[in-house]
Design goal:
Number of strands: 13
Radius of gyration: 22 Å
Distance between the termini: 30 Å
Structural class: alpha+beta
Number of helices: 6
Helix content: 10-25%
């Protein structure tokens, strides 16, 4: 990889600025000042040690995949003027290069998948792949068993022309249910229950595809190879 491309990717600044910093002698590779952006970095055996302005830049040479158990009050974005973002919990180099593969509302908790692999996240978010998501729902009004068939048939949401895809509703008790969806319309779970005269007071995502949330709230971990590959089958 060219040195200027490596620096631009890891520092998030333009190659024009990178060129000026290189010419100023601010970049070293394995202890030697390098002023040419065309210098080739090799990651075949031992990764080179690249320093910029005296600080080592940790090389990110492969896509990254994480799960996070999101608490309430955080948004699934890299920057927001009103709320703190989920990146608060991610202690990784260049964390702002990660994005959520399927966002949760600020007041919704649970499983968020983060990656810097756009093709992989597309397999999760694109409607054509029918990736199922499992939610634990708490509602205001008592649930009735006729809702199971209504959700299975599909619901016409306000201001939309097509029914939702069949959804599996499992009623746990009067105010708690598990809902499995294979699409991700805007505020879909809340709008589905609103359409049948109820109100969601708490919402938690427990599973995406074959990946189940298994860490405490506010923590994150890398996905296993099996979890990553489950979305590529």
């Amino acid at each position: 990889m060219r040195l200027d491309k490596f620096l631009a990717h890891h520092l998030g600044i333009s190659r024009n600025i990178i060129g000026k910093e290189l010419r100023a002698g601010k970049v070293t590779v394995d202890g030697n000042i390098v002023k040419s952006g065309a210098y080739q970095l090799s990651f075949d055996e031992q990764s080179p040690i690249v320093n910029y302005a005296g600080n080592e830049i940790a090389a990110i040479t492969a896509p990254r995949y994480f799960m996070l158990n999101k608490p309430q009050g955080y948004v699934c974005a890299t920057d927001d003027p009103t709320y703190p973002t989920i990146l608060y919990f991610i202690d990784e180099p260049m964390a702002d290069r990660l994005h959520a593969a399927g966002r949760l509302d600020v007041d919704t908790t649970g499983l968020v998948l983060l990656t810097d692999d756009g093709n992989w996240s597309h397999r999760i978010t694109s409607p054509k792949y029918y990736c199922e998501k499992v939610y634990h729902v708490t509602v205001e009004q008592p649930l009735t068993h006729d809702l199971i068939a209504i959700f299975e048939k599909g619901i016409l949401l306000r201001n939309e022309k097509n029914l939702t895809k069949p959804a599996k509703l499992v009623i746990i008790d009067d105010h708690h249910a598990e809902l499995t969806l294979s699409e991700g319309r805007y505020h879909q779970v809340k709008r589905m229950f609103a359409a049948v005269g109820n109100h969601v007071v708490a919402l938690h995502r427990a599973q995406i595809g074959e990946v189940k949330l298994d860490i405490p709230e506010g923590e994150y971990r890398p996905l296993t190879d099996a979890e990553v590959n489950a979305f590529l089958a």
